């Protein structure tokens, strides 16, 4: 078995939320497959896509979960968000209704996952339809700030803003994960031993650096 | 190592899955085809026996543990003494077949007792008592519980671990100890507590591999897959749909709910399937088969594999229909449709079992986890489904639910004319089309059988009357031509014949004179 120098690989789950037709699928296909409206795209599905990243020497596996956006599936949201590390909330900047939906999701996510989840609010830009007012942008930005989310403008068609958005999201998720690790103490075995009811049999003298493992029971 | 089980095109008859007592619950092969309730009633005393068998299993595990430990120790010291260059063949030599361990068992006996006690520290008194009882009789093989598969799985597991050397030895020890401790207390634990025990074990073992043995996360994943397979193959029977939960009640409720929703069409759910395309309907049938097959697997990962295969077939069907990659907006309604068509056996039990005993990372971030989550969504949606979910008016919905309105069978049944929506009066599902065709054939067959029966009855009557006629004619003839004439002829012939058999007539003899 290959032992490594301890560089832990992060695995993050990111849910993709947004009303129908705001461009969720286009966004994620651009990011993971670098394709947009490609007639010859061979990808079987765009529901679950992954991306491997290397951020400051740490490996990150990103799993992006598309969610069914239809109104009748709205109540199922919590089943999808369970255990997610991040959420990308997409709206169409020419359609403030779709932004209102984003606000509802943010409320739900914060209620369920608190500050454990990192949020990105993404306004999809349609270059030919930039009929939005500057005032709306101020509203959107200040809202994002107020809920601890980052706001981005992206275009899947032009491949603008997407890489940056996901990179930032990953960095914040790594920070959150590291903070959590620190909270639990130094290293994983400590957290494990604090879980109740399990005895790890250990009769080797040099075992368990942190100690306290066998005391339970 | 990721040797996936070949997909078999199994065909499950739902009625085969029901409890043999006919109570309507699902039966289970592990319960001799009965549901857990009937099984419980029928085999109260079996539980006591099972506890004893568990103890026997624990004993056997302990022996195997010792034997394997000794064997790896041996291999290790060998390879230590040998030159580092010949590491490979030495490692191979450690793959000793199990039979070789048998002879060691007796030697280990004394040591075993103390080690067993150590593992059972919380309840060593009862453990020791049981041991002395069981110790007299030869312990039955684990085969009684789960059979050949379990033994094969353990053997594969051992082979896998032996290649890992030191960590492998430790993993083995941890697994044995865990199984033994659990077999002792699993009868007293609720489902959630059992789940927590198993999850804690996974977590502790993974942490230990990373923290203590500095194993890379990728390798840990591989190891944990094997650990899950080994542990859950052994625990399946006692922790799947346990008595302590209402899983089975939920199964029955879901099963009935899905049956009551038989009228839901592709159009109502807005599914992007064009079942006119043969390739699409093929994928639909395969998806249905896969999701039904889930119930037959024991390891959580294998069950997830069925869900994943089912999902891939759904994606294919959507892709062929829409000519673009399927998004969640397409996938979820399609999965709901497949679940409604398949009515997968023990759906809730399977969902609960996977949730409780699967390696958590696979459910949280893995691809299998995504499809599993969608299956949970589908089950939740079906449970809560109302008129609004299908864009129907409450009245329409009620009429469908009460069976007054039908979306399917109106075309084949002339007297049902109050179909709520004429457009989807045609059966849209290929399975249903096939079903209807079969029903037509059956009714045709029964008409023909009736005709055949009639013809047979007529033939019988004809035969009877023919015999009568013949009799009557013969009598007539006999009356008209009296008996003496034929009888004379007969006797004349007979006389001749008899004469022929007589010794030749005496011939005159000339006496010499
Ligand atoms: N011009 C432009 N069109 C886009 C962009 N993103 C999505 N679209 C279009 O918007 C429509 C809906 O996009 P889709 O990704 O399917 O949205 P979803 O329903 O949220 O998954 C499609 O016709 C896309 O081609 C974009 O960044 N620029
Ligand atoms: Mg989409
Ligand atoms: Zn029964």
TrEMBL record, chain A:
It is a lipid-anchor. GO terms for cellular component: cleavage furrow; endoplasmic reticulum membrane. The keyword Protein transport applies. Residues 181-217 are annotated as: Disordered. Residues 187-196, 207-217 have a biased composition (Polar residues). InterPro entries: P-loop_NTPase, Rab21, Small_GTP-bd, Small_GTPase. This is Ras-related protein Rab-21. It comes from Gouania willdenowi.
Automatic annotation (TrEMBL), chain B:
It comes from the Eukaryota. Transmembrane segments: none annotated. One of its GO terms (biological process) is vesicle-mediated transport. Residues 442-469 form a coiled coil. It comes from Gouania willdenowi. Residues 403-422 have a biased composition (Polar residues). SUPFAM superfamilies: Glucocorticoid receptor-like (DNA-binding domain), VPS9 domain. It holds the Pfam family DUF5601. This is RAB guanine nucleotide exchange factor (GEF) 1. GO terms for cellular component: cytosol; endocytic vesicle. Residues 100-111 have a biased composition (Basic and acidic residues). Residues 248-391 form the VPS9 domain. The lineage of its organism: Eukaryota, Metazoa, Chordata, Craniata, Vertebrata. InterPro entries: DUF5601, VPS9, Vps9-like, VPS9_dom_sf, Znf_A20. One of its GO terms (molecular function) is zinc ion binding.
